[in-house]
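dumping this here so i dont lose it again. seq + smiles for 2-acetamido-2-deoxy-beta-D-glucopyranose
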Amino acid sequence: MFLLATVCFVLRFTGSSLAAFEVSVPQRRVLAVRGRPVVLGCSYAPSLGNNLEKLVVTWQTAEDNLVLHSFYFGRDQLDKQNARYRNRTSMFHPLLGTGNASLRLDRVGPQDSGRYLCSVDSLLGNGKAEVQLEYAAFYTEPKLNIQVHPSNISLQYQSEGYPAPQVQWTDSAGCNLTAREELSGPGEDGLLSLRTSVTLKDPGPGVNLSFTLRNAALGQVLERPVCLSLAPCDPVNGTRVTIPVICVLCLLCLVLAAILCVQRKRIGRQRG
Ligand SMILES: *[C@@H]1O[C@H](CO)[C@@H](O)[C@H](O)[C@H]1NC(C)=O
Ligand SMILES: *[C@@H]1O[C@H](CO)[C@@H](O)[C@H](O)[C@H]1NC(C)=O
Ligand SMILES: *[C@@H]1O[C@H](CO)[C@@H](O)[C@H](O)[C@H]1NC(C)=O
Ligand SMILES: *[C@@H]1O[C@H](CO)[C@@H](O)[C@H](O)[C@H]1NC(C)=O
Ligand SMILES: *[C@@H]1O[C@H](CO)[C@@H](O)[C@H](O)[C@H]1NC(C)=O
């Protein structure tokens, strides 16, 4: 009887069930986009009639074992949760028993980039799987600032996003221009702040160039042509600066005409 029990015990724990228990992640790298919740996927093979009472799931950072979320005794256990993750994590409870141990993380920021471990302990065995999170934010519409000096013109674009972008300024012939580039942050909002400018000495009758910002993580490309001229200039979707210039010229003409008019009247009165 004792022997039989031992054989059963050995069979149970060396049998296929223990060897087959596996924890896996559908994606080894997950991209988290600012403003959207991210799901760190993790699944395990559920046993028949899996009992949530006997299930332990823990999500931790791989580097320093900070706890993001734990589940055991049939419910969330957040006593050991690190403060960084407070009110930001949740599991899909109705799906837990079916082998879905994924974690949802809200309000992601740059500090969330890193490796995470999903550990599952069930009646059938235990296992771990690792997933890497990368954070990115779309760059905002670049704001143009133009400074006209007697000897040069300076054009500056400002935009915010994450991570560091690739910036390119090209002239009308498609050649790269030398640009200044300043990147600061990220701030509380999880965005890097970019300022980039080119200065053109002796720009001549006009400026015709193009600014391109690329965020490789998100495949985002922002291309903005800039066309500045005193002569009529018709860029496709370009930034138009000609209309204000023409307005100023018209205004000058009007003022000049008014002065001439007044002077002519005065001369006429003096004669008369
Ligand atoms: C778990 O369920 C959530 C919500 O339906 C889903 O987004 C996620 O992809 C699932 N994960 C796995 C590993 O099946
Ligand atoms: C989490 O939410 C609770 C209840 O809504 C709130 O009292 C607490 O201050 C929040 N904690 C953090 C760190 O945001
Ligand atoms: C552009 O002109 C201004 C004023 O003339 C001058 O202060 C500035 O240094 C010039 N910039 C460059 C890059 O030459
Ligand atoms: C500006 O440059 C682009 C690209 O080289 C060209 O297609 C366009 O005609 C130019 N515009 C003007 C006003 O010169
Ligand atoms: C211009 O610069 C970009 C990146 O800044 C680079 O990929 C490209 O090869 C350069 N083109 C030329 C013609 O130098």
